[in-house]
Amino acid sequence: MKERELRKRLFCVFFLIIFIPLPILFIIGIKGVIPYVERSEMNRLMKETMTTVGDAQASLKGFKSDILILSESNELMDLIEKKGSDGKRQKERLANLFVSFAKNRGIYYQVRYIDETGMEIVRVDDGVPVPEGKLQDKSDRYYFSEAIKLPEGTVYVSPMDLNKEWGKIEVPFRPVIRYAVSVFDSRGNNRGIVITNVDARQILQRLQSSTAMSPAKTMLIDSNGYYLLHPDKKKEWGGTVDLNTGENIKNDYPDEAVKGFLSRKADVFIKRATVCSYVPIFFAGNEKDVWIFIHESSLTGLIKAIKYLRSMVIVITIASAVAGAYLSYMLAGWLARASCHQDASHKERR
Q1: For residue 276, what are the β-bridge partners?
Q2: In sequence order, what E strands does 252-337 have?
Q3: pLDDT at 1 over 50
Q4: Which of 14, 39, 207, 301 shows its CA 20 to 30 Å from the CA of 124?
Q5: What is the pTM of this model?
Q6: Which fold has domain 1-61+211-336?
């Protein structure tokens, strides 16, 4: 009876010593693992977003270099100076240069020389020179007004918007970014601008394809919060200079998130069942405007992983408790028997 009672007491002591730390370890483990998993997912998404933005930024730098090369071409200078003729031959040579340039680069659907009055002098559309009778007066367009007043060598970069022809938005929609630089003759007189129209559909497709193999949602907004890229095409181009629908990120996200998006800083946050990273895209020549690339991913997979980890910790805790109980029982029995045997031996000697 004494051995059984001693075994019982020893079992309770050993079991409590082994079992009590387990819930504590369980809580510590869960609290430590979940933030680690969340941080890992946030870091992964931010790295992916930064890589995509880096590729876009590199393309924009190349567009700036191209327009500067065109503005310094001999063909353009010869036309501006009109050496030896009325300029017809010089226009043909410049048009040929524009055609070759557009075809080789593959992303410029329009290259133009516009004189100081705003009139198109040489224009190439989709690699084909435009006849003189179809050239247009662009003196009322904002990009001409902005570019013509810049000093020599300074590149103007327009916001991304929908291209207009004869005052109307081109259909199907063709988003465009314009790079322009003022040109001057040998006497320092401003003789207009040379301008390239970048087919921004290619840029948008690259940004969109960055998440083609994942369930993430890709968006691009301008500095006013209007969508330039969105999974729901009806939300795109809601700005006043485009479709003027009023579709804006401010309508779809809480104020705190919108403030972060428009802060011109890169960041990442977790909100409910989504993780969202955003990175600004700056382009030299237009410090006023900026794009914000937003990468939003579902946390379904992450939540499943966390639930799996919780389940594993619970299983390990239960298994440890069972093992602890068995170990406590065996150890208590051994010590009880040893103690009783020692007491019996001691009595016999007495």
Answers
A1: 269, 296
A2: 267-271, 274-281, 291-298
A3: no
A4: 207
A5: 0.71
A6: Beta-Lactamase (3.30.450)
